[in-house]
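Translate sequence into structure tokens.
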Amino acid sequence: MTETPRRRRPSTELVHGGTLRSQWAETSEALFLTQGFVYATAEEAEARFLGTSPGYQYSRFGNPTVTMFEDRMAAFEGAEAARATATGMAAVTSAILCQVSAGDHVVAAKALFGSCRYVVEDLCPRFGIASTLVDGSDLDQWKAAIRPNTKVLFLESPTNPTLEVYDIAAIAEIAHAAGARLVVDNVFATALWQSPLAIGADVVVYSATKHIDGQGRCLGGIVLSSQKFVEDHLQVFIRQTGPSISPFNAWVMLKGLETLALRVEKQTANAARLADTLAGLDGIGRVIYPGRADHPNAAIIAKQMRGGSNLIAFDVEGGKAGAFAFSDALEVVKISNNLGDAKSLITHPATTTHQRLKAEVRAELGISDGLLRLSVGLEDIEDLIEDVTEAAKAARAAV
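Result follows.
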């Protein structure tokens, strides 16, 4: 009788999960920097392409280093299977398009990263896939948007950039009652603080560029779901359309995963302190942070998240001028549109990540001209507190 392998805890999986060792028994994961693979015979090549013989064919289809990254993420997330992609947007696009056809319908929350909203609102309709945007916090709107041809529901939680948190379990029930799947972008929470698959989601996506790499080096993405979903929909889509991650980037992501728990725990602790500091500063309006009791979705956060986030959103008085003055006065925190980095980064969504949205749409989503999104890093918290305190003074003086 074969014993079932003991389930290892997340931090252990982040270090050891999915490791494949070559005949040399290397300690670090091997980097298989190759485009293709050779076969002992023509018959073996035929069998590989027929799928009757296991093994690799071409790194666009699969690669040992990429497999290690996929398997480690699946073990960490608690998913049956995963497929890595070249970028986070490749992951989002693949996760949605691999399962829909002309005549189908997609429902998504309005509060999305600008490129994600483009995929749903602009790209899908170009190929005959209808889409509807709803207020993600209003379950009645989700229900009302469902049509007989609805195949996918899509959301971010927490959202970019206003950190709204949606009831994933309740929205999953709506999707399943309609015979649809729920896709969740979990990048702001990370798998450390939220597990969408465990509470009803069917597919989870990440921009691995963010916390998974965590050090500003490489682009990457990953889609996690059931083995059946991957085999029936995702694998063939990635194979034929080519949004594949490079083996080198997958290797970098593997090394990033080893320290993800340490980094995200520290970043979250820093963010909680910094959010409280910002809330007490003159010239700072609303402060939105999933770890604070005054978050509008605090009850949902308590139910489905194990921790906050390293992201903070806050309004600076004086609109764009005040937000720009605040950002320009920072010394430790750097201006960048990335997030999840070891370095603290700040961005002005209205003029960067969400600039393509019309002003009235940004207003509807709560993206004011004074809103800033702060990704908190690993610096000493006292230096960060001093930095934002001085920046708030500079912003007040400027307006």
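Note: The longest strand covers residues 150-156.
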